[in-house]
Specification:
This protein has about 400 residues and is of the alpha/beta class. It is built from 10 helices and 15 strands. Helix 1 (about 5-35) packs antiparallel against helix 5 and helix 3 packs across helix 5.
Length: about 400
């Protein structure tokens, strides 16, 4: 298995090489044109830009690993900043190695090159970073992830929006949201996956999409197939764009719910080869039909389940790693519908995330259920998600698990 950091290192190295090679050739070409196609200019320009190019390469490589290529605009701005630093340091190195003292006059002359010859270097390197480097980085990441390792476990997560408190509430009375506490709870939730050995991948932050933290509703994954949903709430449909990008970057095959169909991931519960789909206020019959058409060739049976007492199906039932479905009498009328099931003492206890075959994640609001599951041999990780529960969220909603 290749780790997240090694994948980023490989992709960043490839992107840095491509950025610098294309950028350097571009600088030489523009300089050649600027000096009216005088072939002798190469002998002068090559050593002038050499140190700057090498320094910029290492800067781009390092920043690439920690996120330079995450967004194209960031790559453009970052590439320009790194090229400026590289150009200045390159000239300082040249002056220092020539034995000339570096004083204020020399430094002034070096900085002045940023509005003359080095301006070409900065502009071309910035464009090369944003277009060549960015493209190579994502192509390499996608190539590495085309076939997900069998033992690789990834959790897609998304930071809470700035306007989280404006999230939709359907079955609960609206209560004030402590955004600062919500951020801390989200950090702890993500940390629980990290501690359990999962790779957490952040989907691009959506500052003004209030419900976007509930990333599970935007995309559902079955093996190497990602089904991009079509949320039943109009205000949530923009959430799927970045979710699809994240799934595509992982090398997943993309399918979509479209047309008049609506489907939210919170309504989709997989238990073995059976996929229960909630017919809720957010998922309609056409959405169920389309999902059935996508999953039938993959060997899954899709079973529609009426949902009336909560927002989503997984607000009423989820399953333990062994397939036992957790239910609460206030949330489901006929638990026998799911076959093997376990009645839990708290409403919040119906929602669990399987971190492994013997470990589950559960809300801290369900301590009795946690004790019940521990008594059945499971290690239980409890997380406080009170601010998200005020918006009808649960532990499943805040991530998309892959692997």
């Amino acid at each position: 298995m290749t780790s997240t950091w090694s994948r980023k290192l490989i992709a960043s190295a490839a992107a840095a090489v491509a950025t610098i090679v294309v950028g350097y050739l571009g600088v030489m070409f523009v300089t050649f044109i600027g000096y009216q196609f005088a072939g002798t200019i190469f002998a002068q320009a090559s050593p002038y830009f050499f140190e700057s190019t090498i320094i910029t390469f290492f800067l781009v490589l390092i920043l690439g690993i920690i996120g330079l290529y995450r967004y194209r605009l960031l790559a453009l701005i970052g590439g320009a900043a790194l090229a400026i630093i590289g150009a200045l340091l390159g000239l300082i190195v040249q002056v220092a190695t020539s034995g000339q003292p570096i004083d204020s006059t020399v430094l002034g002359s070096i900085f002045a090159t940023l509005i003359s010859l080095n301006l070409v270097f900065v502009v071309i390197m910035a464009l090369s970073t944003a277009f060549i480097g960015y493209l190579v980085y994502h192509l390499v990441l996608r190539t590495q992830s085309t076939v997900l390792d069998e033992d690789r476990r990834i959790a897609l997560v998304r930071m809470p929006a700035s306007n989280l408190a404006e999230g939709i509430v359907t079955h609960l009375d609206r209560t004030p949201i402590d955004s600062e506490l919500a951020d801390k709870q989200w950090d702890a939730y993500v940390a629980a996956f990290d501690t359990a050995g999962w790779e957490t991948t952040e989907v691009t932050w959506a500052e003004q999409l209030a419900d976007s933290v509930f990333i599970e509703d935007a995309v559902v994954v079955f093996g190497d197939v990602a089904v991009v949903t079509r949320p039943g709430a109009d205000s949530r449909r923009a959430e799927t764009v970045a979710a699809e990008t994240a799934a595509r970057d992982l090398g997943l095959s993309i399918q979509r719910i479209d047309g008049e169909g609506t489907l939210e991931g919170g309504d989709v519960l997989q238990v073995g080869t059976t996929v229960y789909v909630g017919r809720s206020g957010r998922t309609n019959a056409e959405g169920v039909r389309q999902l059935r058409g996508i999953l039938a060739p993959l060997g899954f049976d899709v079973v529609a389940v009426p949902v009336a007492k909560a927002l989503h199906l997984k607000s009423t039932v989820t399953a333990l790693p062994d397939g036992t479905v957790l239910v609460h009498p206030d949330l489901i009328d006929d638990a026998s519908f799911f076959g093997r099931h376990l009645v839990v003492p708290e409403r919040e206890g119906v929602a669990v995330v399987a971190l492994s075959d013997d470990t589950v994640l559960i809300s801290a609001a369900a301590p009795q259920t946690a004790a019940l599951l521990e008594d059945r041999g499971y290690a239980v990780v409890q997380v406080d998600i009170s601010e998200f529960e005020k918006l009808e969220g649960c532990v499943t909603c805040l991530s998309v698990r892959i692997g």
